[in-house]
Amino acid sequence: MKKKQAVYEDSLKQVAMARSRNVYTDPDSDYYFREIVDIYKSSSTTEAATTIIKGKLEQLQNVTLNIAVTGMAEAGKSTLVNAIRGIPNNDPRAAPTGVTETTMSPIRYDHPTMPNVKIWDLPGIGTTNHQAKNFIKQKKFETYDVFIIITSERFKENDVLLAKAILKKKKLYYFVRSKIDNDIYAEQQLSRLNEAQVLANIRWDCQKYLRDLGNPKVFLISSFHLEKYDFPDLVTTLREDLPENKKLALIQSLLVYSMGVLIMKRKQFGKMIWLTAFGAGAIALNPVPGLSLACDFGILLSFFGKVHKAFGLDDESLHRLSVRVNKPVLEFKSAMTSQFRDGVNPGVLTKFLSTPLVTASATVQYVMTFFVGVGTLAAGGISVATVYHLLNKGIKEMEKDAKAVLNVAHLL
């Protein structure tokens, strides 16, 4: 009994030491940590607690997010669908674009690196084939989590009618005014207005037609320049409005077009570290071949693989960035220096896990107050604290690579 208590207390000390090195101070980190404590307190065995944690991890990582893009015909719906997916209009996988209505029925487009994120290109409203009233009756609103109502001019009665129908279904919707770059160029050829004045005029012109809805915000965007205008604000608003289980899917799917997006991704994955550490390291397992460490290798491989793709470091993402900024992939690769430079696979991860670790000393009082009375936490094999440290270390390395890529692409 004394030996078991000693092992238990040693594990808590290691968790405290890991937590003292946590550079991700997002308040949600505490939420997951406290939830883990509650799971252990309510579970009869470490195995039972770990099973619950693994189930939550799987649920968060595989949750489906359905985003519907709709609005007037010829508003740039398909171009926005392609931009959200990070592919150009001439890509074979792209939603077809054209000066006439090219979408006759809802078409689903899976994200190229995040297949659980689905972007729907809905038919334009107000065309002969899709009058507003019929559109509302025929479309299965329950399929979609978010609606983006887009126009390239001013919003009209059909747009308001659609928004009211979405609101009745208690769904999220956002108004987007597209092709802003074209409008700025055209307006500045005719007047002396600066960019800020042009944007203010367009926003006012759009919002005056939406007063029946309480003057909702209109996001001004260019699908060819997501880093400019209001697209970053739209992403931030979506992140704030979505349920917690949908946020990770959204943020993972975003194209890394700025440092702001990279920071957002880093923080979101930082929030997942405690869950992943407990899921992978709480139960004593056989050592991974080639290592003296014991952990759930599959969980770590999956986690790092998702971070690698979300940070835009995989070959597919680098190729899409290459096309977008007209830079060869080799230039991006040359700037990357981490152990994950050539991807995440079992061999690379095994080498990474064999890296010597330095554990700093720290007080254990904080974590001990959470785990008072918890007797199910095991410290067999690799400790939760060590896994936690490895996850943090891996994220930092990949973040450094992502910053280097952004620098080469002149997006910093």
Would you give an account of this structure?
The protein is 53% helix and 9% strand. With 412 residues, the chain is an alpha/beta fold. The protein has a six-stranded mixed sheet with strand order 2-3-1-4-5-6, sandwiched between helices. Helix 12 packs across helix 18. The longest helix has 25 residues, at 384-408.
Order of strands in the sheet with most strands: 2-3-1-4-5-6
Count of separate DSSP helical elements: 18
What would you call the shape?
Answer: globular
Order of helices and strands: HHHEHEEHEHEHHEHHHHHHHHHH
Structural class of the secondary elements? Answer: alpha/beta
Weakly predicted, low-confidence segments? 22-26, 358-382
As a whole number of angstroms, the C-alpha radius of gyration is 24 Å
The percent of residues in helical segments reads 40-55%
List how many beta strands DSSP finds.
6
Distance between the termini: 56 Å
Average per-residue pLDDT, rounded, comes to: 79
The biggest sheet, with number of strands, parallel, antiparallel or mixed sense and barrel status, is: 6 strands, mixed
How much of the polypeptide forms β-strand, as a percent range? 5-15%
Write the layout of secondary structure elements.
Layout lengths: L1 H19 L6 H16 L3 H17 L2 E8 L4 H9 L21 E4 L6 E9 L6 H7 L7 E6 L5 H12 L3 E6 L2 H11 L4 H13 L10 E3 L10 H11 L2 H10 L5 H13 L1 H9 L15 H14 L4 H11 L3 H7 L10 H8 L11 H6 L13 H25 L4
Parallel strand pairs: 1-3, 1-4, 4-5, 5-6
Antiparallel strand pairs: 2-3
Helix pairs in contact: 1-18, 2-3, 2-12, 3-10, 3-12, 10-11, 11-18, 12-18, 13-18, 15-18
